[in-house]
Amino acid sequence: MPETVESVFARVVTRNPGEPEFHQAVREVLDSVGPVLARHPEYADARIVERICEPERQVIFRVPWEDDRGRIRVNRGFRVEFNSALGPYKGGLRFHPSVYLGIVKFLGFEQIFKNALTGLPIGAGKGGADFDPKGRSDREVMRFCQSFMTELHRHIGAQTDVPAGDIGVGSREIGYLFGQYKRITNRYESGVLTGKGLSYGGAQVRAEATGYGAVFFAEEMFAQVGEGLDGKRVVVSGAGNVAIHAIEKVHQLGGTVLTCSDSAGYLLDEKGIDLEVLREVKQRRRGRLADYVREVPHAVAVAGRTPWEVPCDLALPCATQNEIGAAEAAALVAGGCLAVVEGANMPTTPDGVRVLRRAGVRFAPGKAANAGGVTVSALEMRQNASRESWTFAESEQRLRETMRDIHARCWATAQEYGRPGDYVAGANIDGFRRVAEAMLAHGVV
Ligand SMILES: NC(=O)C1=CN([C@@H]2O[C@H](COP(=O)(O)OP(=O)(O)OC[C@H]3O[C@@H](n4cnc5c(N)ncnc54)[C@H](O)[C@@H]3O)[C@@H](O)[C@H]2O)C=CC1
Ligand SMILES: O=C(O)CCC(=O)C(=O)O
Asked: Annotated site (Important for catalysis), which positions (predicted)?
């Protein structure tokens, strides 16, 4: 039977039951690639789509650790090595109680096309654990990371699989993971992880890269219609790594970010979020957003609601998956939003995307707009391999050029396939073609 996108999707659902986020990510890509298969029957003959939807390897492991009261805890760890057609598996680790195989697979699948879009030699993987670092002491986090790496080290390496951070995994966790890898293997293998601290092989701009990159992408989108970010009102969700650096770059480019959020609600500061205060509250104290209001009394903490109800020109969802559904998208449209640029992975549901599209809101999917993080990770790998370290200015320039290039290719590919302005189609098709060509060249593996 010839391969069709419908037959592949049906098989993905049957073979991966109970994994709705993975199905959603696959559906969104398959909806774009039909016309590519029509032009390239050799892809269908080689069953590229079916193979791309099946991870090359999935590892699930026990992570036992001891809390500060001496109680034994057990979590579940994952690493899904999805596709190595373009290079070593590459993608972050997420520590969050919601993590299960379906989340890791959706993220790993998105990573295939994202990493291909960067044009850099990186395959795709993702991992994590259902561990909640919130409320845990540094020592507890360290013991958890050491136990996690005691198993993970068998599967990774600078030429094999290179993890980085994601939700709940920042520079503290990467440091503990790196220390344990070095101890177990007795190798100082800098390129085995990215997102490292600058004192031991980290790259300038990696921490900033995802947030900055998303804003550079937004800048390119506005430039298409002859506008800049200067004077734009921007709403951001999340208050972690991606959100904080997105806010910083919007402010540097003359826009005003009115909101940020966490799982308890959102913060509204009409004068523009004060980053010094936000960093103190969220990063240094690891506190709640409501603490910001104590320092900045004119701000308002809105409990149990999302920032999409605030009128804006640009929305940057930077928290988590499926945070903008149809209702939130309708609120953005009602508030005059001109563009939604995804800093997070898959923050907009398919219904949400439909509402935005119907209203003519420009929409950039995460696999294109948040590719800045993995771009600078690949540059970190390159610096580790050559034992060089580039300056902040040089690294930021390379990031900006890559985001400009990704934007241009998404735009041109969408035009080529008769879908002008459709960044989803442009990103999926361009990413898919790159991986498909390499897979075809490698034979049936
Ligand atoms: N760190 C990176 O370089 C990259 C991250 N991403 C994506 O960006 C998003 C944010 O990641 P990071 O900033 O790195 O993580 P982080 O752990 O630094 O921050 C996550 C933020 O999202 C908020 N959040 C988490 N779950 C939430 C929920 N259910 N409702 C509301 N807020 C929630 C948290 O309160 C926190 O403010 C994720 O979707 C991640 O996959 C994408 C590309 C690269
Ligand atoms: O920097 C990396 O390797 C991956 C970042 C990541 O997990 C992502 O792009 O979602």
From this structure: 166
